[in-house]
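Q: What does the predicted 3D structure of Galactocerebrosidase look like?
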Amino acid sequence: ATSRLLVNYPEPYRSEILDYLFKPNFGASLHILKVEIGGDGQTTDGTEPSHMHYALDENYFRGYEWWLMKEAKKRNPNITLIGLPWSFPGWLGKGFNWPYVNLQLTAYYIVTWIVGSKHYHDLDIDYIGIWNERAFDINYIKVLRRMLNHQGLQHVKIIASDNLWEPISASMLLDPELLKVIDVIGAHYPGTLTVKDARLTKKKLWSSEDFSTVNDIDMFITSCFGVSLTEQSFRTIAWNLVASYYQQLPYGRCGLMTAQEPWSGHYVVEAPIWVSAHTTQFTQPGWYYLKTVGHLERGGSYVALTDGLGNLTIIVETM
C-alpha cells in the first residue's frame, strides 16, 4: 500500500513521476514491477482492497494496482509484472485465519486475479508469488501450478517463498514435484550470501525484496548493489517503488523516490533513481553478471554484465 497517494497527483506531475520510474532511458527505467494482490488486510502502510471481498464477489477495478501496471506498460511494454499477496480476505480461511484451509479455493482466488488482469486490463502477469514473508504450503504450490496450467496460464511462473532461502530450498531438494513447479527462489534481504541448498536447486535466485531504508545513496548501494556484487543475483527488487504515503507511517521515505504531497504536486527524485539507472539503462532483462566482479584498492567496487552476444556493461561505484 505504498503508492496510495500517487494516483491522486494532478497532471502533469503524476506523469512526470511515472516517467522517472518506468520510462526507458530516462530515470530508473525499471525492468520489473511487483505489485500487491490486495487482500483487505493492513499490510504495512495501508490496506489494499481485494478483488473478491467474499466468495461470490468479483470486481477488477478496485484499488490502483491495475492502473499502476497499465501506466508502467504504457511506458515500457516489456516490463515484467509480478503479483504477490500480502494478505488474504477472511472468507478464504473459513474462520481459521489461514489461507491454506482449502487449497483449491485459495488457488482459485489467485488465478482469478491473474485472469481478471488480462480480461479487464489486457495485462499479462509474468510471475506469481505465494504469501509475503509467511509460511508456505507445499501442496498449495502444487495445486496453484496445476490450476494455472488448467486455465492456460503455463507462461505464469511461480516464485517461492518471498521469505528466506530456507526452508523452501531444502523442501525443493526433497520433493521432485515441488522442485519442478517452482521457477524462482525469492529471498528477502538475503545480504551477500545464498545458501548451499538454494544453489543446488539450479533455479534462478532472486533478491525478491530488498532496500526498505531511507532513500539516500549510501543505503541503496549497500543493500541492493552489494547483493549483485557478491552473488550475481539475477534480479533485485527494491521495496518500495515510490514513497507515496504519509511520512509518519512505517518506513517513511523508503521508496526509490518520494511523492507524498498530491495537494501541492511536490515530489523529489531521490538518489536511488539514478543508482538504479546505472544498471537498468545499460542492460536488459536476460543479461547476466560475469564473475569478473570485485573491489578497488582505494575503495569502490565494480560489476560486469553481458547479454552473451558481445555486448558488455561495466558499472563502477566509488562510494
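A (community wiki): The C-alpha cells above were generated from the sequence. The mean pLDDT is 94. The chain has two domains: 6-280, 282-319.
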